[in-house]
Each structure stands twice: as C-alpha cells, then as structure tokens.
Amino acid sequence: MPRTPEVFVAAHGQDDNVGDPALRRAMLEGLAPSSRRHVLVGAASHAYVSALGLRGDDVTYKSRRQWQLMAFRLALQGKAAFVSNAGEIQLNRRRLRINRFDRALIALIRARGGAAISTGLGVRTPSGSHSPVLTSLARACQIATWRDQDSRDFARAGVVRPDWAFALGSATTDLSSDARPLVVISMRGDSEAPSAEWMSAIGAIRDAMGLRIVVISQVERDVARGEQLAVEFGAALHPWMGGDHLAAEEDLRSVYRRARLVISDRLHVLIFAATEGAVPIYLPATHSTKIPRTMATVGLGHYQASAGGGDEEIRRITRLASTQQEVLARVDAARAKLEELSRSMNTVISGGRAS
Fold first, then answer.
1. How far apart are CA 86 and CA 244, in angstroms?
2. Distance (Å, whole) CA 208 – CA 131
C-alpha cells in the first residue's frame, strides 16, 4: 500500500540570482503530489520564495534548526522522507556539518522504512581529498543524482542526470530559428574582466553574423560588469536590478527567444538560453570546468570556445550558431531524463522501488 510521508526538502539559494529559485522550482514541480512538504528556504526573500512555485499546503522554514527538529520528530514516527537541495555545493566546514546532519537524518528515515533522495547536485571543485561523508550520504539514498560526471566520480556513488533547469522553458516545437537578430552577452561580475582579445572576438562574431549585441544580467552582482560591456560595445543593456524573480525570468527568456547566440560564463544563463532556442556558447574571461562538465551531461559540452583561438575559432562559433536543431534535440532528451527521474522519485517516496 502506498505511503504518504511528509517530505523534507531544502530549496534555499542565492537571492540575487534569477537561476537559483528556477532550478529548485523545476525540481519541486510535481514532487510528492500526495504528501505535505516541509521546505527549507532559509533567509530567502518573499520574491525568491514566490519563484519556487510552492503549493498552498507547503510549510516553509527560515530556520534550519526548526526544519531539522521537525524532520527528526516525524522520522522517529516513521512519517518522514528526505529530498536534498539541488545545485552547487562547496565542501567547506559548513557543508560538512550539513552533510553530517543529513546523513544522520537519512539513517533514521531509512531505518523507519522511509525514502531518501539526493538530486541535482554538483561539487564546485570535484578534486583533492575524498569526502567519506559525501560518499556515505549518496550511498544511503535510494536515488542519488549528480549534474556532472566529475561530481559523481568524486562522490563515488550515484548516477549523472541533467541540471534540473533544463526542465523549464518553452516547448521546443514552439521555437523557431527565425526572427533572432541578437547575440546576447552575460558575464560574471566577480571574476577577471574580459581581455582586449575577448572583446575583439565578440566584435568579430557580431560582424561575421550581422547580429546586434544585447548585454543582460541574470545575476544582480553582474550588473556593473554588464554596464561596462554595454558601453564598450555601444550595446543595449538589459539588467536585472533585483525584485521579482519570476517576472525577471520571463523577461530574460523573452530576450533569449530573440537571440541566435548567447555567450556567457554563467551556467544558468546558458541553460535558459538553450531552452529558449538560442545556441549557448561558453566563452569565458577565465576558464573553469564547471560549465563544460555540466553541459556535457546533455551533450553540449563542446559548445565552448577560447577568445585566443583567432579567426578559426570565430568561424567555428559561427558554424555552431547554425546548430539550433541539435541544441533543441539535446534539450528534449534532457527533459525526458528529468521527467523519468521525477517519476522515480515519487515512486520511491510513496514506498515503491526506483526504476
């Protein structure tokens, strides 16, 4: 007989980032439809919480301690299930404390016949010393998914599935390659400024394809960098200055639906772009493996370039710009995997076995 446990799920994230509540909304959508959900939102603003798409009977917690106490109380009664937060994790002291608590909670839940799921995580730096607690946590869950292969290999347990944000966006059948006159640029404000070589590459792409540059900021702390780039290119600026995350997301998506190319060093800028029919290109000022390894999970890891590649690299980018149908096929495949994962999660929560 199916169980109807109360589900404890964390969904907090960065309040100044439109992508953070979005990827958690994708994970929460359809999760445990018959269960009461206890959602840890931490210090998130009302706008962030509104963007999670919570149900009317969800219980939210700003205090992790209160959320933990309630989870243990119901776990002791055999009435709790656990679902991890999704997104990036840093293996610092704070994360180690959280992992130790989660491991103890999962052990209790499993001992009482309940479900435990870890999903959608990516380790910021999946190298160096192995984390036994992380491995133990993943192995204790009936389902453990990572958004990139390096994170899974570092954890030594679980499987790889797409970032949850691929589940969002327009139906691919509604997207066209027509009326896309833009190349959209969005760069981090907390890393090295783009070089003269990078600026030259962007100008060459614009000129080769006859596109118009629009500079956007999907993260509030990137606004100043965006302002600098807009001045340099004489381009339109489309910043997010905080406020309503859902309205900002739809506004940004409307820009991506008019873009042929989106060039960024922000992961969820590129994922949003792909789900709206733009070709996503990782062209960083400072290289990191995070985006290529996460995009590789859906077959888009090669959609990256180097500003120092000269004319041949510009020609390669212009060739990639004509591969919209390949991008959309990858998005559809990612969505199918996430739909299957969502069904498996609900099966496990209700007392069945993962497929």
1. 21
2. 48
What pTM did the predictor assign?
0.96
CB-CB contact of 27 with 13 (8 Å): no
Question: How many other C-beta atoms can be found within 10 angstroms of the C-beta atom of residue 163?
Answer: 27
Q: What integer pLDDT is reported at residue 241 of this predicted model?
A: 87
CB 67 within 8 A of CB 8: yes
Q: Residue 347 in contact with residue 34, Cβ under 8 Å? A: no
Q: At what angle do helices 132-140 and 93-111 cross, to 10 degrees?
A: 30
Tens of pLDDT along 235-276?
A: 999 999 888 999 999 999 999 999 999 999 999 999 999 999
CA angle 264, 155, 269 (to 5 degrees): 15
**pLDDT tens profile 148-169:** 999 999 999 999 999 999 999 9
What's the token pair of residue 192? 């090295």
Residue 214 CA to residue 327 CA, distance in Å, equals 21
Contact between 147 and 166 under an 8 Å Cβ cutoff? The reply is no
| Rounded distance between C-alpha atoms, residue 75 and residue 114, angstroms | 8
Q: How many C-beta atoms surround the C-beta of residue 254 within 10 A?
A: 11
Cα separation, 262 vs 253, in Å, equals 11
Q: Structure tokens of 80?
A: 């709790």
Helices (H), 55-158: 64-76, 93-111, 132-140, 149-155
Question: How far is the C-alpha of 104 from the C-alpha of 109, rounded, in Å?
Answer: 9
Helix, strand, coil share of the chain (percent; to 5):
45, 15, 35
Taking the alpha carbons of 242, 247, 249, 253 in that order, is the dihedral positive or negative?
Answer: negative
- For residues 72 and 94, the answer to whether their CB atoms sit within 8 Å is no
Rounded Cα distance, 185 and 281, in Å: 10
- Residue 300 tokens read as 């888009």
CA distance 158 to 38: 25
Residues of the chain whose pLDDT is less than 70? 1-3, 355
d(CA 86, CA 103) in angstroms, rounded, equals 16
Q: Report helix, strand or coil for 317.
A: helix
